[in-house]
Amino acid sequence: MGRAETGPAERGPARPQPLIGTNVKMTLTPSEATAYLATLRDLTADVEDRTLFVMPPFPAIQAAATALAGSHIAWGAQDVHPDDRGAHTGDVSAPMLADLGCTYVLVGHFERRRDHGETDELVARKARAVQRWGMIPVVWLGEMARGRSGEASFPEVAAQLRALDGVDLERSVLAYEPGWAIGAGSRPASPGWTREMVARIRTILAERCPDPDRVPVITGGSIDLQTAPALFRQPGVNGLFVGRNALDPVAFSRIIRAVSPTGGSPDRPARTP
Ligand code: PGA
């Protein structure tokens, strides 16, 4: 498990299974990741109708591979170099990540763009590298600063999406997270804002791929237990991408359980360790 899976055929066009993941950013040493993942694995062992993933920092990916082998939780990386090999000191390539069993690789996250000046063109090269090695790029999309309205903000997001030349969108995950909603001191986008932006993203997807409903669009930015269910319920949203509020595995497992794939009552927490 761990790949984006599809729902029952009788419910109409294949829809991706809800996808709930976390990018833990520059937190968790390998030892801390081992402890975190053991707890998360235990707390979510019965969650089979949601695809779960965790993106630890590079040095902790091997620990994730060990801690999560045979579980329902996939693991991935937070970045990748676009080339497969070469003189790029400090960088990590897609074949290295594939060798570590990564399913997902995040490309072009807000913080990579903000801190490292990553461009749309570079992000597309990274996404292609990820796909060359059989993994799924999680492509960050979002406006860097808050605009007056969704209409005013969307051209930036549209340009990011249209720049994904040569990327198979049906083998990608799109993570729409407004930059202004990310990080400590920020607040999540409203359900209405998210709905509007995701609808616009899906309009472009419909122009660019034969089966746009197969492309999971997940959303995030300061999501917590209170805000997760309403964001998850927005049309066109297939899942959630959680940051700092997933750093406690108990809190993350509660968020995971608070979103019901069927739209019915959320799961009750199974237990507290
Ligand atoms: P945050 O991070 O939840 O801490 O805002 C979200 C993200 O960067 O994906």
Structure description:
The protein has 273 residues and is α/β, with parallel strands linked by helices. The chain has nine helices and eight strands. An eight-stranded parallel beta barrel has the order 1-2-3-4-5-6-7-8, surrounded by four helices. Strand 3, helix 3 and strand 4 form a beta-alpha-beta unit. It is globular. Bound molecules: 2-phosphoglycolic acid (PGA). 2-phosphoglycolic acid (PGA) binds next to strand 8.
Provide the descriptors you would attach to this structure in a database record.
8 strands, disordered N terminus, alpha/beta, 273 residues, disordered C terminus, eight-stranded parallel barrel, 9 helices
Topology, element by element:
Elements: E1 19-23, H1 30-43, E2 51-55, H2 61-68, E3 73-77, H3 94-99, E4 104-107, H4 110-116, H5 120-132, E5 136-141, H6 150-162, E6 173-176, H7 191-208, E7 217-220, H8 228-232, E8 239-242, H9 249-258
Helix pairs in contact: 1-2, 1-9, 6-7
Bound molecules: 2-phosphoglycolic acid.
Strands, count: 8
Overall shape: globular
What pattern of helices and strands is seen along the backbone? EHEHEHEHHEHEHEHEH
Strand content: 5-15%
Structural class call reads alpha/beta
Q: List unreliable stretches of 5+ residues.
A: 1-13, 268-273
* Hetero compounds: 2-phosphoglycolic acid
- Tell me the distance between the termini: 25 Å
Order of adjacent strands in the largest pleated sheet: 1-2-3-4-5-6-7-8
The largest β sheet comes out as:
8 strands, parallel, barrel
Q: What's the mean pLDDT score? A: 91
Q: Kindly report the oligomeric state of this protein.
A: single chain
Count the helices. How many? 9
Question: What radius of gyration results from the CA coordinates?
Answer: 17 Å
Helix share, percent: 25-40%
